[in-house]
Amino acid sequence: MRTLKGPAIFLAQFMADDEPFNSIDAMAQWASQLGFVGLQVPIGNPAFIDVALAAESKDYCDELRERVAAHGVEITELSTHLEGQLVAVHPAYNEMFDGFAPAELRGNPSGRTEWAIQQVKLAATASRNLGLSEHATFSGALLWPYMYPWPQRPQGLVEEGFAELAKRWRPILDAFDEQGVNVCYEIHPGEDLHDGVTFERFLAAVDDHVRANILYDPSHFVLQQLDYLQFIDFYKDYIKMFHVKDAEFNPTGKAGVYGGYLDWKDRPGRFRSPGDGQVDFKSIFSKLSQYGFDGWAVLEWECCIKSPEQGAKEGSKFISDHIIEVTEKSFDDFAGSDIDKDEIKKILGL
């Protein structure tokens, strides 16, 4: 058993142009004042990290670590959620996902993909230079428009889609392996890796690559009506990262899993701040501790009702209150006795 680290906070939903959300130094101070001890950092904003420089310069990474450490926090992982998304984009989403790429690459899907792959590879080296062992990302999706089988999918479509996804990710996984860093795919609707079955398909397609692992976020499983506790039992050996995000699912006679194109606040399935939804975090923290997960418990704030500031303030305490300091002894040790083989045989009647 292991004790989880935390609380940490994913900065993506908080980064903005106004203070204290416009630089890593200001956000490190802000997060520390709320009780966080870790920062999960997206790579796309140079005010937080220059990923190309981080991949090139160990000195830059050491200086960056010292800057955040001065506020009592540390960088826990880097994230390429947006860049990973662009590794594989179905043409139906080209215009919508072009906003994730530099302006000069918009309207150029192949160039956008090459750029995204390079950015994720840079994050591998940057992670190593920062002394990190895990990395958060999305898989991207070639098959998502065909998730529901109507019209009937042509035979071989899914297999070809996963073969192409694996072809694109295999060199990236190899690059992470060279740096000694795990790629942790957030299992997420909208991605080709959106549940356990699709993760297994991908894992088989990349020949069980040692660096292909999981970022566990139970909120996405609530919205799919997937058993998020048994998921831990199945995939405990692959779960290397953990997002603490809550959700609730309240179906009606008018809408269910697919949401009816409603706004988030009106959907049957919606994200909530930790403690405000239906996720059984006590059982999750217990299972992760039991199975020896010693990574970070990272707040990801996404709530359709509560403000991000209140969500962050409450989220820090919520995680701290749920982290289990695992025991190093059995509760009934007091009743034990020294091993005596002769006595054992006598007890057994031997």
Keywords for this entry:
single chain; 350 residues; alpha/beta; TIM Barrel; eight-stranded parallel β-barrel; two-stranded antiparallel ribbon; 39% helix
Characterize the structure shown.
The protein is α/β, with parallel strands linked by helices. The chain has one domain: Alpha-Beta Barrel (TIM Barrel), CATH 3.20.20.150. It is 39% helix and 14% strand. It has 13 helices and ten strands. It has helices at 24-33, 51-56, 58-69, 81-85, 94-97, 109-129, 157-179, 196-205, 219-224, 228-235, 281-290, 308-322, 341-347; strands at residues 5-10, 38-42, 74-80, 134-137, 182-186, 212-216, 239-244, 246-249, 269-272, 296-299. It has an eight-stranded parallel β-barrel, surrounded by five helices. Strand 4, helix 7 and strand 5 (182-186) form a beta-alpha-beta unit. The protein is globular. The relative contact order is 0.13. The mean pLDDT is 96.
